[in-house]
Each structure stands twice: as structure tokens, then as C-alpha cells.
């Protein structure tokens, strides 16, 4: 966990790639774009349009090799030779959040959720519910890319995202910081509506197929479920996150 001591660019920016997402980010007065990186192979009207939009927004354009742009975008097919780093003002390292004078009291921890649409919808829901943080590990969870941003309807840019290496790293840090760690599981006897919560609590949302992984599961304080009187085995993870998030809103009121 040594990489937590330095602030990674991935803890400050959301990277968007592709001509249309980059142009949309540059045109959005509510966003601050740190820089645009354009492949040196990018020429013609499309490249000129991006350079013009960046100039109007007062954003520097850097040139790089097409390979470098692909590496930075983390995407081999759809970057179109351009990416932008957009400042995410509420995104920071989990370690920094936990060392705050007033650390977050209610957070979600994503463990193995690999579908960008689910990650994006969870970020939108948690932000709407006013949760203090959504822990999105760099490994084992869908990358925070344009698909996530699109699924969040743009809310991902201002969501309270907390970054760390892995879900296990997060579980260890949360446990050491005195958080109760609650995992959603369909077979748990205790429901989210009746559980007594400590002052600080983290809720683990597991992956679409495997659920909460064993590495995180062995650190869980208690397993909880969403009661479902109807004949359905489980909810989509983003739907479960919505039920949980707004149960926390209800309690706070």
C-alpha cells in the first residue's frame, strides 16, 4: 500500500477520451479541464476543432505519440487520438479522507464491479443521496472512463470518489480507522432496515457475478440483506446501491 503516500493523477482527474467527449468537457463551463493531449498523428478538421475549443477554454494542448495517447486513455480502440484530464474536485485518496479532522461517516466500497454502467449509476445515486464517499479502487473495478461518466449523466465529475489500490486495501484501512464494514448479501438474515449502525460505517457492494470477494469478506463486520418478499433472487448492484443509499437518507432525516 505504499502508493497511497503520493497523490496520483488518477486521484485528481477523470480522463475522457474521444473527440465528442473532449469537446463536451471543454464546452462545459462548470468543469475545469486541466489539459488536452492530442496524438501527433491527429490532423484535419477534427484536430483543428479540438485545438480551437481548447484555446477558447484557456486549456493547454499537448502533443504525444498515438501510442502514448492510447496508454494514457487506457483504451485501445476508441480514443480517436485525443484525451482530456478533467479536474474532479471531490475526488481524492481514501487515505487522505480517513485522516481528515472530520472523516466521512457513511461510504460505499465497490468490490469487483466491472460494468461501467453500474459504476456510473452508483456514483450518480450516491451523490444524489449526499453520501460522504464512494470508494472506487484502481484495481478490480471498472475504470473511471467516458462510459462511467455517461452512465452517471455527468455526475461522476463531481461525485465524492475516494481512490485506493484495491478493495482489500480499503477494507483494511477502514477497519483500522474504526469503521463498521457491512456487506450486502442476499442470504443475510439481518436487513439494512433493522441494523444498528455505528458512527462510521462502510457498505461493500460486490461484483455482478461473484458478489463480495473473499479477501474483503473475511474483514466484514456483518452481512446484511435487502428484504425481497417477491420471488426474485437479487437486485442489480446499482439498484441495491440505490435502496441502501436512500435508507441512509431516511435514517439521517
Short description:
The protein is of the alpha/beta class. It has nine helices and eleven strands.
Distance between the termini: 37 Å
Helix content: 25-40%
Model regions low in confidence, pLDDT < 50 over at least 5 residues: 1-5
List SSEs in N-to-C order: EHEHEHEEHEHEHEHEEHEH
Provide the gyration radius in Å. Answer: 19 Å
Largest sheet: 7 strands, parallel
Structural notes for this entry:
Helices cover 34% and strands 20% of the residues. It has helices spanning 19-27, 44-57, 66-73, 94-98, 116-128, 146-151, 167-176, 214-217, 237-252; strands spanning 13-17, 33-39, 60-64, 82-87, 92-93, 106-111, 133-135, 161-163, 180-184, 201-206, 222-224. Helix 2 links the parallel strand 2 (33-39) and strand 3 (60-64). The longest helix has 16 residues, at 237-252. It has a seven-stranded parallel sheet, sandwiched between helices. Strands 1-4-2-3 form a four-stranded mixed sheet. The model is unreliable at 1-5 (pLDDT under 50). With 253 residues, it is α/β, with parallel strands linked by helices.
